[in-house]
Amino acid sequence: MDFLKSWPELAWVILAVMGGIARYLDSYLKSGDAPKFGMLLAHAMISGFSGYMVAQVMLKFQPDWVLIAAGIGGYLGTQGLDIITELLKKRLNAESDAEMRKKEEKPDDKSV
Q1: What is the per-residue pLDDT across 31-75, written as a single tens digit (0 to 9) for each?
Q2: Sequence-separated (6 or more) residues with CB below 8 Å from residue 51
Q3: Which residues, other chains included, contact 57 with Cβ-Cβ below 8 Å and sequence gap of 6+?
Q4: Residues 43-58, buried b or exposed e (16+ Cβ, 10 A)?
Q5: pLDDT for 104
Q6: Of 81, 75, 76, 71, nearest in space to 11 by CA
């Protein structure tokens, strides 16, 4: 029954895998080559992980978009993780800069 408790996470991974498989198959349709089953599995695994991680980040910022984020994260694969990494760096740097400015603006209580 513990399995039923984690159905949202399972849905995220399934959507991510579907997104990754869609991208993989689309690339082969455009190139005209036949897809390889081993590569399909590799893309599915990478996409499942990437989509799950993107969904976890989206859960923190905008929970209503988690399922969409999982699919897009799966479609983008490691590129999606790179995008999320850059966005988080910018956000965290902005927050730490704002905290530093607040500390600089506060008067020193020791001088009173």
Answers
A1: 888 888 898 899 899 999 999 999 988 888 888 998 888 999 999
A2: 12, 13, 15, 16, 17, 19, 20, 69, 70, 71, 72, 73, 74, 75, 80
A3: 69, 84, 88
A4: bbebbbbbbbbbbbbb
A5: 78
A6: 71
